[in-house]
Amino acid sequence: MNRIxxxxxVFLMPALVFAGTPLFTITPLTPTTIQVPLxxxxxxxxxxxxxxxKPHTLIMKPINGITQVTSAGNCPNPVVLGAKQSCxxxxxxxxxxxxxxxxxxxxICQQGPNGKPNxxxxxxxSQANALHVSTMPITQIFYSGAQNGxxxxxxxxxxxxxxxxxxxxxxxxxxxxxxxxNLYAGAANGFIYxxxxxxxxxxxxxxxxxxxxxxxxxxxxxxxxxxxxGFVYYSTNNGTTWNQTSSxxxxxxxxxxxxxxxxxxGTENGSVFYSINNGASWIAINGQPDGSAIQSIFVANxxxxxxxANEYSYSSSSLTGGGIWTAFxxxxxxxxxxxxxxxxxxxTQSGYVYSITDGTELGFITYTPINSVFVLGS
Length: 378
Hints:
Layout: H1 2-19, E1 24-28, E2 33-37, E3 41-50, E4 56-60, E5 66-69, E6 79-81, E7 86-94, E8 108-111, E9 117-123, E10 132-136, E11 141-146, E12 151-154, E13 162-164, E14 173-178, E15 183-187, E16 192-195, E17 203-204, E18 213-219, E19 222-227, E20 232-235, E21 243-244, E22 253-258, E23 263-267, E24 272-275, E25 283-284, E26 294-300, E27 303-308, E28 312-316, E29 326-330, E30 334-337, E31 344-347, E32 352-355, E33 361-364, E34 370-376
Parallel strand pairs: 2-10
Antiparallel strand pairs: 1-3, 3-7, 4-6, 4-8, 5-7, 8-9, 11-12, 11-34, 12-13, 14-15, 15-16, 16-17, 18-19, 19-20, 20-21, 22-23, 23-24, 24-25, 26-27, 27-28, 28-29, 30-31, 31-32, 32-33
């Protein structure tokens, strides 16, 4: 009996040793425990190494909300690794696509005859080095569009700013507008770019008239654009086609805002107009605040707010003329006013964003002018 036991012990030992020696290993290059904001994406990297003396064709098991980068310098999918060869596994974690916490993986498997992972030959990192991903709820997001063609965002009140892939190949971003579904960027090259995944990918509308898009605004199912050619355009199919309104005064449209009752436009010659017939005709409001171009227009709490190229911000209690302009802030190159009319933010030509309401600096972003500021969830 003892001889039989010794025989089976000796016979099984090689198999046990083999089972404890992985054919390929997955070693982290970056932190693997992260909290991802719902509007953001993070990169996690591993080194995948073939530890055997034979080549293996490996494939990663799909994970919801995580995309494998397969461009040059990264592991393709599938990847053929020769004896002792390795590659860099780069993963993009998209907070908007994660349905729940992730506490395992990535699983790298031998590719089966059907092209899918062979469940009998899969390896993953140790629990300490596995993916530990959870989402972080965000109540407020700051966006900035800059002269250098980049869009930036912050989900921690300006403590840090993250650059998004430039949508227009470096063309200056003149205007930013955000909804819960899309982020829009009006560019100097004449296009409006939009993204539903916070800038991971961008799409372009058709160009309203091939001139710079100085202002972009969205309300319900209508997208508005103000252009250097002096017109306000609107689209009901997200920019596939555009409808041209009449020109308020022949100069560039530098600001656009819409309410359920009126359409507002600011011009390069320093005037503010409104229309109650969707731009068929325009009425001037209160004359010129200071003679310089209107940079932004907001209507909130029955008050009209604007800022000008002279970097002054003004308000008027009259939405249709007959009132006066009252200056309430200066050194404001780009202005944002929330829908309640009680929070004010500004961007500067030196690349800063700050709270006009209390004077708090919200961070330095870049060494170029901040052409537009937008705060979602304010």
